[in-house]
Design goal:
alpha+beta, Sulfite Oxidase, Chain A, domain 2, Immunoglobulin-like, 9 helices, globular
């Protein structure tokens, strides 16, 4: 019985090792431009995770960071390994069925190249590798342990009053007015390891479709065009109330209208379509809704975009959530029809207009404050380009409100810093609340809503204790 158990474990070890080996071989084929089945499996899994109802449920449990995405990656790897183990065990009983199922899986998730490249390797391992497991010498168990550690190498994750007294730069914990590139939030539909990497590769930005003069511009030619630079807040549609998926960097690039004027837009054009071919990502916007400040950005604070932020270029569309602004931009098309975006096809907003938001940066939730000791309540506010009239803060859970000091913005699409000096007079629990008010008196939507499909709404609340 012990020998049978040992033999079973050895077969499992060899089966899992075969799955790891095929995953590694697939990575090598991916470098040659062949579709990677593991990546395709991950894409199908995250497709369903991206459906708003499922997305909200998953992120309610795991939060809005990268944890859920990394767990999906690990889950995909687990399915790959278990699926291969099952096929290897099936092979001795039904070899044709096992090989056929493997080929279908490679083809469905990775395409013909993956099917042709991986199916023979599967057959070789199933035919001779698993047979070796039966003859495996127990004295070589240390080698099996080393093989079992190989999945670690495939890790998928890679993470007012008192206005004259307010000096925003001296408020500890308050967001910077201009977000450095290193601190800008990162969101991608991919695991980071599979994000497009166009560094050191030939690059052309094509402008085509319903235009008179199609363009094909290198990065150097793009940089030679008249450039603009401004501070532009970027926010993810999945940012929850009080979340950190928002930043306000100083971008540099070329206005989209400059490119469209050079290309000559034909009268039939109604939509501008943005495509990142390396990322398989498409978005579109009605041509008559394209803001004058929309740009193709290639730098932040004078530095090239980092790979994770879209090197060499990305789209910036003021007033829209990040999902409408593709990274790794390769094509701009003028069309008479809409191209439904990657996330819109999964039920997310087609318009993705930014909702007015405000956030308390300091004090932190759960902070302990002293009776009679002044503290500065401070944070950021943004309305997607709609000007703000004021920011109001409540220290009693929203029963009464007072105006905060609102710093003028660095531009029409930059976020604004705000602050309110406060001296708590009574001990106990206090709930701090913030809301923004647009010019004209429109108050930020107080209704608590999850981020998807249209963006989160509600007031940010922070609970502190005064002693």
């Amino acid at each position: 019985m012990a020998r049978l158990r040992a033999g079973g474990w050895r077969r499992w070890g060899w089966a899992l090792a075969g799955g790891v080996g095929l995953a590694t071989m697939g990575l090598g084929l991916r470098a040659l431009g062949v579709g990677y089945p593991l990546e395709g499996m991950y894409g199908r899994l995250t497709f369903w995770l991206g459906v708003p109802a499922v997305f909200n449920l998953v992120h309610e449990v795991f939060g809005y960071g990268s944890l859920a995405k990394n767990l999906a990656g690990l889950g995909t790897l687990g399915l790959w390994l278990l699926g291969h183990a099952a096929l290897f065990f099936l092979y001795p009983r039904a070899p044709g069925v096992a090989v056929g199922l493997a080929a279908l899986g490679y083809g469905y998730f990775g395409g013909w190249g993956a099917m042709v490249g991986l199916t023979p390797a599967f057959w070789v391992w199933a035919r001779w590798g698993m047979a070796r497991a039966v003859r495996f010498d127990p004295s070589r168990r240390s080698s099996l342990k080393e093989i079992a550690l190989l999945p670690a190498w495939l890790a998928w994750g890679q993470r007012a009053r008192g206005e004259e007294r307010v000096v925003f730069e001296r408020i500890p914990g308050l967001s910077r007015e201009v977000t450095p590139q290193a601190e800008l939030y990162y969101v991608s539909k991919n695991l980071a390891v599979f994000d497009p990497d166009l560094r050191g590769r030939p690059y052309r930005l094509e402008v085509g479709g319903l235009v008179e003069r199609p363009l094909r511009l290198t990065l150097e030619e793009l940089r030679a065009l008249p450039a603009v630079e401004f501070v532009h807040a970027l926010i993810c549609i999945s940012n929850p109330v009080g979340g950190e998926l928002v930043g306000s960097p100083r971008w540099r690039g070329v206005l989209l209208r400059t490119l469209l004027e050079r290309a000559g837009v034909r009268p039939k054009a109604r939509w501008v379509v943005f495509e990142s071919r390396p990322d398989g990502y498409v978005e579109s916007l009605p041509l008559d809704e394209l803001p004058a400040e929309a740009m193709v950005a290639y730098a932040i604070d004078g530095e090239d975009l980092e790979r994770r932020h879209g090197y060499p270029t990305r789209v910036l569309i003021p007033g829209r959530y990040g999902m409408k602004q593709p990274k790794w931009l390769t094509h701009i098309w003028l069309s008479d029809t809409e191209a439904v975006g990657f996330w819109a096809r999964r039920g997310w907003s087609r318009t993705a207009v930014v909702r007015t938001m405000s956030r308390i940066d300091v004090p932190a939730d759960g902070a302990i404050l002293g009776v009679g000791e002044e503290v500065v309540i401070a944070g950021i506010a943004f309305a997607g380009g709609r000007p703000l009239e004021r920011v109001e803060v409540s220290t009693d859970g929203g029963r009464t409100w007072g105006p905060a000091v609102l710093k003028p913005p660095l531009g029409p699409y930059a976020w604004q810093l705000w602050a309110l000096p406060w001296v708590p007079r009574t001990a106990g629990a206090h709930e701090l609340v913030v809301r923004a008010v647009e010019v004209g008196g429109r108050v930020q939507d107080p209704t608590p809503r999850r981020p998807l499909p249209d963006g989160a709404t509600g007031y940010h609340r922070v609970r502190v204790r005064v002693r």
